[in-house]
Design brief:
The N terminus is likely disordered. The chain contains ten helices and four strands. It has two domains: about 210 residues, Alpha-lytic protease prodomain-like (Up-down Bundle), CATH 1.20.1510; about 80 residues, Alpha-Beta Plaits (2-Layer Sandwich), CATH 3.30.70. The longest helix has 30 residues. Strand 2 and strand 3 form a beta hairpin. Helix 3 packs parallel to helix 7 and helix 4 runs antiparallel to helix 7. The protein has about 300 residues and is of the alpha+beta class. Pfam families: Cation_efflux (PF01545), ZT_dimer (PF16916). It is found in: Membrane. It is a multi-pass membrane protein.
């Protein structure tokens, strides 16, 4: 049996590790602003500020998970129980983020319904000031993470979070301006609901990605037929069976397969070619491959 131990496991972790200090600074900035926005939202009576604060709370969790993932990815398992390491901590953290985001969206909708027909006073000055500060914080965070987003999927996810935060800050500013000009607080509620729906949509999209990883679905964009065709095109390979490909965590794809070889095939050469092809053509950097000259009875009995 040949084991393809791709050494790309730490690639994303090391790339993210180079930007750990920037992730930490972004986390501090966003968490600090979250406290300010939450207090200002309660004081001003702005549902738009409160909904954006809820959105920010989910992003603080996501940023914290991204920061923690840069440490966990490079930490060896000392228990002997996690043969794949602790890479999926990122996936579980993302699942927690989904629950928080859905809770925020539900709160905003319920609060908006409760304000229908009620007399509500909104302090637009606080909305504009806090929204502007939030926009500055998010732009600074985007500049901090932009370079790392091109190298690490972990940092890229954090970068997209602050981009979404910037959009929320713009929404708060727009709501403040409209309410100040029209004197109608309903606009604040409308913008809040829009932010809440935006958060809910993002939660559903992220939740589907989390479930796809936990359900061990094939990586997005990968075609199994193409993988089989490329493996069987390797000299000496006559057939491929028992092929499984899944995602361990973001940007880390793994696979197992049985390669049926011709009698005169060089198994080591075939393994080397197969591992190199999977890594370069299909982004599968860790492949465990078994070579055989004929399927074993156990292979023929497998139905999954």
């Amino acid at each position: 049996m040949g084991h393809g131990h791709g050494h790309g496991h730490g690639a994303a972790g090391h790339a993210g590790g180079r930007y750990r200090s920037r992730l930490a600074l972004t986390f501090v900035l966003v968490a600090g602003y979250l406290v300010v926005e939450l207090v200002a939202g309660v004081w001003s009576g702005s549902l738009a500020l409160l909904s954006d604060a809820g959105h920010m709370s989910a992003d603080v969790v996501a940023l914290g998970a991204a920061l923690l993932a840069t440490r966990i990815a490079a930490r060896p398992d000392t228990t002997g129980r996690r043969t794949y390491g602790s890479y999926r901590a990122e996936v579980f953290a993302s699942g927690l983020t989904v629950l928080i985001m859905l809770g925020v969206a539900a709160y905003v909708v319920v609060e908006a319904i409760g304000r229908i027909g009620a007399e509500t006073e909104v302090r637009t000055g606080a909305m504009l000031v806090v929204g502007a500060v939030g926009l500055v914080v998010n732009v600074v965070s985007m500049l901090l993470l932009r370079a790392g987003a091109a190298e690490s999927l972990n940092v890229k996810g954090a970068y997209f979070e602050v981009v979404a935060d910037a959009a929320g800050s713009v929404g708060v500013i727009v709501a403040g301006v409209i309410v100040a000009l029209t004197g109608e607080p309903l606009w604040d509620t409308g913008v809040a609901v829009a932010i809440g729906l935006f958060v809910a949509v993002r939660a559903v999209v992220l939740g589907r990605e989390v479930l796809a990883v936990l359900g061990q679905e094939i990586p997005d964009g990968l075609q199994m037929d193409a993988v089989v065709a490329d493996l069987t095109s390797i000299p000496g390979v006559e057939d491929v069976h028992d092929l499984h490909v899944w995602t361990l965590t973001s940007g880390m794809n793994v696979a197992t397969a049985h390669l049926e070889l011709a009698e005169d095939a060089d198994s080591q050469d075939v393994l080397a070619r197969a591992q190199r092809m999977l890594a370069t053509e299909h982004r599968i950097e860790h492949a465990t491959l078994q070579t055989e000259t004929a399927p074993t009875p156990q292979c023929l009995e497998v139905t999954w």
